[in-house]
Amino acid sequence: MAAVRRRSTRARTAVFAPIGDLGRAVRVEQRLAQAIRSGILEDGERLPSESELAAMLGVATVTAREALVSLRAQGLVTTTRGRGGGSFVTRPLGAADEMLERRVAAMTRVDIADHGIHYATVLSGCAELAAERANVEEVEDLREILPDPGTTDATTLRAADTELHLAVAALSHSAHLAREVMRLEMELGALLRLGLRDPDRQAELREHHAALLAAIAAHDGNEARALVRRRVRGLLGELAELHARIR
């Protein structure tokens, strides 16, 4: 399988950030699995080697190896040997959404509301700070993240929305907030974006992106915060409806 070359993004950088002193194979596995299911790591993409992955995540090589073994067992990674070999992302169409829906079904309504409040509070705060601090060049960098207006592929839209959130968090100039947004995106973001299979939800996302970037460009922190809070509130409502249907 040929390697797929991807541009460097904040979302991808976050995927391979050090896992921490308590890092174990299950945590490496969970982070990579969530990144694959959310579309940050794309189908056919070549992953770093075991030693490179271990160095990037700050874990032992054997830990990275164990995580890749588990990902292969889940069908999320395929490993080939020889020249041009390596470990490649294999994201079966539809399968990831089914797994995400099972995660939703395993949650309670209280879990969804609690996680959602946290997500909305942190992300809206980052949006407010970004509006206060972003310069013209940084706003243009945000615009470059957005997919083409005609894009209808849900995976592409989900990945772009995730990347935009992480970029906005970076503009808060707080490493702690940026790390927290990354954690929340991995934990809840993919669930909130399940509805992006629907063309109406895709249109709403494009409108939200345009309004949010306009608020940031105008240095209107109150509007940026309000836009994010309204969007997350709407997404939580959709997630609660999905939870009720599949339980």
Describe the structure.
By secondary structure, the chain is mostly helical. The protein is built from 11 helices and 2 strands; from the N terminus they run H-H-H-H-E-E-H-H-H-H-H-H-H. Strands 1-2 form a two-stranded antiparallel ribbon. A hairpin with a 5-residue loop joins strand 1 and strand 2. Helix 2 crosses helix 4 and helix 6 crosses helix 9. It is globular.
Number of beta strands:
2
Low-pLDDT runs of 5+ residues are none
Structural class: mainly alpha
Order of helices and strands: HHHHEEHHHHHHH
Largest beta-sheet details: 2 strands, antiparallel
Task: Give the fraction of residues assigned to helices.
Answer: 55-70%
Query: Strands of the biggest beta sheet: in what spatial order?
Result: 1-2
CA(first)-CA(last) distance: 39 Å
Q: How large, in whole angstroms, is the Cα Rg?
A: 18 Å
Shape: globular
Q: What portion of residues belong to β-strands?
A: under 5%
The tally of helices reads: 11
Mean model confidence by pLDDT? 87
Brief summary of the model shown:
The longest helix is centred in the C-terminal third of the chain and has 26 residues, at 221-246. Helix 3 (50-57) packs across helix 4, helix 6 (109-133) packs across helix 8 (154-170) and helix 6 crosses helix 9.
